[in-house]
Structure formats: structure tokens, C-alpha cells
Amino acid sequence: MEKNIEKTELRLQAECFQFHWNQYPNQRGLFFRIKNEGTNRISGARDKASGVVSGVADSCLLLPKCRGVVFVEFKTETGKQSITQRNWQLTLEAHGYTYTIIRNINEFKELCQKLEL
Question: Distances in Å between the alpha carbon of 2 and those of 13, 24, 70, 79?
Fold first, then answer.
């Protein structure tokens, strides 16, 4: 069951990435996935040793003209954050960063409009 949830979240993430890529061609490269999962124990240990942090958001959206950054977590309609994800969100927000959870493509489109991309 866990893999089905992951695939659904990845599908949503891909849909949002493709929307941003096509809708905002002058901002290509400013919205990207943060790879934070190892494929096995060895790569996981290597990733952790080189700075991969548990709970980090799925994607990062850099706002044009140095207006900041938004960290984006993708969840299904019923998906919940893990404790480490919630703690990472609280840490970011305590330092003044924006963190948002996106559950469908319409929420992502609304975010882009709100940010005046």
C-alpha cells in the first residue's frame, strides 16, 4: 500500500513540475525536486553522510528576482506528514521560510498565482 501512495504523490509532483515547466518557460530550473531518499542502505548511508536530511520537502521553488524560496511537500488527499517532515516544516517556518503542502494540481496552480510567478 505504501508504494501506491508514493506513486500517486510522485505523479502529482510530476504533473506540477510539467505545469510549471510549460507555463513559466522563463523560470525553468527554478522549480525542482529534492532527491532525499536512498535506493538501498549503502546509497542511503552515503546520502546521509553527504548532507541529506530526513524530512526535507519534496521540491523547492525559487522565486524570480531573489524574492525568496518556497518548499513544497506533495501529499495525496489523505496523506499525512511524518513526524520528521512536520519537524522540518516547523524549523523552516521558525527561520522565516515558506513551506506548503500541495494535494492536487489546482492547489499548485493557485500557489503559482498567489506568488505572482
Answer: 17, 33, 26, 11
Distance (Å) of CA 21 to CA 24, 27, 30, 49, 62 = 6, 7, 9, 32, 13
Contact between 13 and 74 under an 8 Å Cβ cutoff? The reply is: yes
Query: What are the strands, taking DSSP E only, across 7-112?
Result: 31-33, 59-63, 68-74, 98-102
Query: Contact, 30 vs 64, CB < 8 A?
Result: yes
Q: What's the CATH number for 2-114?
A: 3.40.1350.10
Within 10 angstroms of residue 85's Cβ, the number of other Cβ atoms is 19
Instruction: Please provide residue 20's backbone torsions phi and psi, each rounded to the nearest 5 degrees.
Output: -60, -45
CB atoms within 10 A of CB 59: 20
CB 60 within 8 A of CB 32: yes
Residue (of 46, 21, 23) closest to 32 by Cα position: 21
User: pTM (2 decimals)?
Assistant: 0.86
* pLDDT < 50: residue spans in the chain: 1-2
